[in-house]
Amino acid sequence: MRHLLDTESLSRDHAIAILDTAQEMSAVGEREVKKLPALRGRTVVNLFFEDSTRTRISFEAAAKRLSADVINFSAKGSSVSKGESLKDTAQTLEAMSADAVVIRHWASGAPARLANSGWIDAAVINAGDGTHAHPTQALLDAFTMRAHWAGLAGTPSVGGDLAGMRVIIAGDVLHSRVARSNVWLLRTLGARVTLVAPPTLLPVGVEHWPCEVSYDLDAALEKGVDAVMMLRVQAERMNASFFPSTREYARRWGFDDARLARLDALALKDTIVMHPGPMNRGLEISSAAADSPRSTVLDQVRNGVSVRMAALYLLLSGDLKSTPAPAPSAALPLVKDLP
Amino acid sequence: MTRTSAPSGDRTSGAAAPSPSRMVLSAADIDRALTRIAYEILEANKGSENLLLLGIPRRGFPLAQRLAAKLAATDPSIDPAAITGQLDVTMFRDDLAHQPTRAPQRTELPASGIDGKVVVLVDDVLYSGRTIRAALDALVDLGRPQAVRLAVLVDRGHRELPIRADHVGKNLPTSSAEKVRVRLAEIDGPGTVDEVVIEAGA
What ipTM describes this predicted complex? Predict the structure, then answer.
């Protein structure tokens, strides 16, 4: 694993290695000194061409907890507004010897271009590109689900997967990189995913994705579900009419108070309600649902730091850059034999 | 990385055919060494007060548990679970950038914390001393112990740092080309016979 660009190419072993590492990282937040020296002297650049609150702060916190130096860059107020190209911006960063570049870009594929074009030598982490992928969000969602799933089964979450878990991802699938990354990762981890959206908000070719598709949220809930993930209606990307009115959307595809009560009526007492944030309260999720004990919205934010620490650690430590990745656990028994 | 080189049957001959490995500590030897170390720890600490045993993953942790059980056998006031912990040092190693990525292990401290305690670090093999240096750094981030001591099952020499063990199961002169393997039932699977073997380097 040299870069983290999407979840489609992430193997099950790598995904579980990231989640297990994140599990150990999560303990750091509860210690007296909330810092590890693992990435001391490394430089992580946060390259954000698109607005973001939690992802950028989360990456910054993660890098700082690992003792890396962080340089924040946002397109607003930089030379990008003077017309500088991605290549020139990236090579400027390279000249400042960045070891990792965390990039969010409005264009799908920008991180892959950065990683594969040979412009820069640093590890590239995709922090969301256009409507393509948002791998760390999917990993933190999977981490949150795994903690819940293992808690229900009474097993330790380390080493576990999501086998048999029923997940509904509902809302604006068309514009959602979170949904795309989650579908692939959750499939890899053994969960059964159902996408629920109005037909206008489903992308072309969705029938080839490894998931089921439904237009009816109530019917999907009836079938039983262990986690419901609501997606944000991305008004900023909507330059056409995708649904008649916000009220109709909220009534048919929003997770409102009635559907929250419906979960109790269906005896789904352990079902969690997730949202990647930022939430449009009253549109895709009601306030009662967002603030209910079922909601894992804040857990997701908390887990985001751990998962991003794990990704940065696994990409930046070790000599994976030159050799094909060995299974991380396989290296452990050798501790005593190292020179 | 295979550790299947130990032939079954008579291992004391030391010259078994497939791989030249030599057993230096048998299960009974390990048990006796741990018993002696347990008494030494109590003696050095003048009792069991404020003692904390922190094992370094992976094989240091079961050794710490065994030591705690032995301490409890001599002093019934000790609750072995309450004085045993696990201290992961992966993130504090000085060779992170030069070795394949290691997955961090769990750090678990007893509820009492380590402030003001006498912490005994427990590991299986003491070699370069770099693991212990990392452990000392890791401890600093967790609190301020009153004292830190080191107990190891095997000291094989070749120190690269000014570190020494307070309690040693066995001093084992080795060449740096050789490998010292410690097998413990808790880590290597049930049915494994506890032993320490020296394997000739490849």
Answer: 0.76
